[in-house]
């Protein structure tokens, strides 16, 4: 999973005291990234740079050039610097729902509008906020995120949190986060993340066609097939839960059936992965106790992807034309916007 993280110093002066602590941690986290950022070209040319890191950074620059040249993504200073944050994730996102709902709790901020998560640079801060939500009876899920976008407000760097990923994964994350700089619709997380996911998928497909080996192509295609199966399974059970919560059953009965449904989801996953040749990439998702909040990022990042991919195909795979059309759709009221895409 990836995140558009909310960070702007101006917001501190625009929001109430209840949010000041949140914004200050965001400002501090962003400043740390700036302070740790170094130009990739200098690191690559410096013989003191670890050889393996130098090779990965060289790849990151090639991916960056490809993004603007072949995918019409912004040609700016984002992803031309590198920062070692000395932690496994860039941010931690907190997702939440009420006990009997699949709809996410949203938090609203200046400039970016309302989003379906709340992001923290510190894992402990995220955990503290999650604990408070649980005490209110919410279903909560905390996810570590390797990359995020400041939507072009600042120059986002390549991070240690993903630099040693496989080549295709580095490309995927770079394309996704740069896509947020092209189109971002305030208050519509599903639209934004589904759009960026569609860009990343076609981008990686083109990257592999030119720079990938047959082995890399086969590995990526296999993982995408497993991911499709995972998403279809989760969305199927998410639909069942939505129907359950909308039913007139008493709360105790809903609670019992909710537990049964999540148990069935885990069992269905174990059966599904038997055909995955040992791939266990989604095991961590099912490792803990599942709840409604776990389903939020799956829906957010996938729900409208088929529609965006269809729109790209209708534009002959021309990204510039595609972006123009996406921006036009993004101007529609949210109900008409989603209806337009659902119709595709």
Mean pLDDT: 93
Question: What gap, in angstroms, lies between the N and C termini?
Answer: 25 Å
Radius of gyration: 20 Å
Number of strands: 10
Query: Strand-and-helix sequence, N→C?
Result: EHHEHHEEEEEHEEEHHHHHHHHH
- Detail the poorly predicted runs: 1-17
| Shape category | globular
Structural class: mainly alpha
Given the structure, what is the number of helices? 14
Q: How much of the sequence is in beta strands?
A: 5-15%
User: What's the arrangement of strands in the largest beta sheet?
Assistant: 2-3-10
User: What share of residues is helical?
Assistant: 55-70%
How would you characterize the largest beta sheet?
Answer: 3 strands, mixed
Structural description of this entry:
The two termini are 25 Å apart. Helix 4 packs across helix 7 (189-211), helix 8 packs across helix 11 and helix 12 packs across helix 13 (319-330). A hairpin with a 3-residue loop joins strand 5 and strand 6 (113-115). The strands form 4 sheets. Strands 2-3-10 form a 3-stranded mixed beta sheet. Strands 7-4-8 form a 3-stranded antiparallel beta sheet. The model is unreliable at 1-17 (pLDDT under 50). The chain contains 14 helices and 10 strands. The protein has helices spanning 10-14, 17-36, 40-45, 51-71, 123-135, 167-182, 189-211, 214-246, 251-272, 283-287, 292-302, 305-314, 319-330, 334-342, and strands at 3-4, 37-39, 81-83, 91-97, 107-109, 113-115, 118-120, 139-145, 148-149, 158-159. The longest helix has 33 residues, at 214-246. The chain is mainly α and 344 residues long. 37% of the residues are buried.
